[in-house]
Amino acid sequence: MGDYEDYINRLKGVKAELDGRRMYSQIEAKLNRRTPKVRLVLGGALALLLIGSVIYFNVRPYFFGNQETLADYVFQQNEMNGDQILNYVFMD
Amino acid sequence: MAELDFAGVYADSKDKVWKLVSRYVFLREDREDLFQEIYLSVHRALPRFRGEASIHTWIYKITVNTAINYVKKQNRHKWFKKMLGSLRIMEEEVQEVAADVLTLKPLEKLNPQQRMILILSDVEEKKLEEIAEILKIPVGTVKSNLHRAREIIKKEVRKNGGL
After folding, report:
1. Which of B10, B36, B123 sits opposite A11 (nearest CB)?
2. Among all residues of chain A, which has the CA nearest to that of B101?
3. Beta-bridge mates of residue B27
4. Could you tell me which residue, A87 or B87, shows the higher pLDDT?
5. Dihedral (C-alpha) A61, A62, A65, A68: value to the nearest 10 degrees?
């Protein structure tokens, strides 16, 4: 047990200098840098929504035998109507 | 208000927290990093502190649990770096080693929880029940971990000729 007790006594004697002020200012800087959680969550949700909608409208049709995207559908319908709708929007 | 309280809490507890951190991790950079992480957790949790236990006990719990999680995370990073090192993707970093690293080296043989239990029991002289409460584990688990940790350290100390 002697060696072990010596070892524990040496552990008790371990001393490291603490620069309390420097540490405090670094903690404060980290606190000020931190983005509030709500903003992070909202940002993440918005990014997921964007990525999700891109995948839904552009990738999904390829997996269901329909190679056309939503934009294709809009232009096709417009053509079938003799370009009336988009001409109305962009020309008039 | 919380800011003012935090400054006071920091001033009252910093030395005790630093002492435990210095015994638990070995590199200066890690010590400072862990110390800051502990106070970031304290700051985050301070508005929820209801005063059921003393502020010192409360901070001690945060310190112990943050420290264990820190070393667990560090071990995962070490494993990853070692793997990258062996693949020669990344050079292993050389870090500033604390002067007392020889004394602390045998503790590396323990897992993060065993290391903390040994320090709390034999170095900080806490009761087993107290340790169980801090770590939220049964007293029996504390006892068996402590026994195992002591055996490992004894073996290491013997191997290194009493250090």
Report:
1. B123
2. A14
3. B97
4. A87
5. 60
Residues listed for chain B: 163
Min CA distance, A49 vs chain B (Å)? 29
User: Using CA atoms, how far apart are residues B123 and B110, in angstroms rounded to an integer?
Assistant: 15
Beta-carbon contacts of residue B26 (< 8 Å; ≥ 6 apart): B97, B98, B100, B101, B104, B105, B107, B108
For residue B123, give every residue at least 6 positions away whose Cβ sits within 8 Å of its Cβ, in sequence order, or none. Answer: A8, A11, A12, B23
Residues in A closer than 8 angstroms to B107, CB to CB, are 11
Structure tokens at A81: 């109507």
Query: Would you list the domain boundaries of chain A?
Result: 35-92
Give chain B's domains with CATH numbers: 1-98 (1.10.1740.10), 99-163 (1.10.10.10)
Each residue's pLDDT tens digit, B1-27: 444 489 999 999 999 999 999 999 988
Residues ≥6 apart with Cβ < 8 Å to B81:
B90, B92, B93
What does the pLDDT look like over B29-49, one tens digit per residue? 999 999 999 999 999 999 888
CA distances from B81 to A79, B84, B85, B90, B93 (A): 59, 5, 6, 7, 9
CA angle B107, B163, B161 (to 5 degrees): 115
**3-state SS string for chain A:** CHHHHHHHHHHHCCCCCCCHHHHHHHHHHHHHHCCCHHHHHHHHHHHHHHHHHHHHHHHHHHHCCCCCCHHHHHHHHHHHCCCHHHHHHHHC
The rounded radius of gyration (Å) of the Cα atoms in chain A is: 32
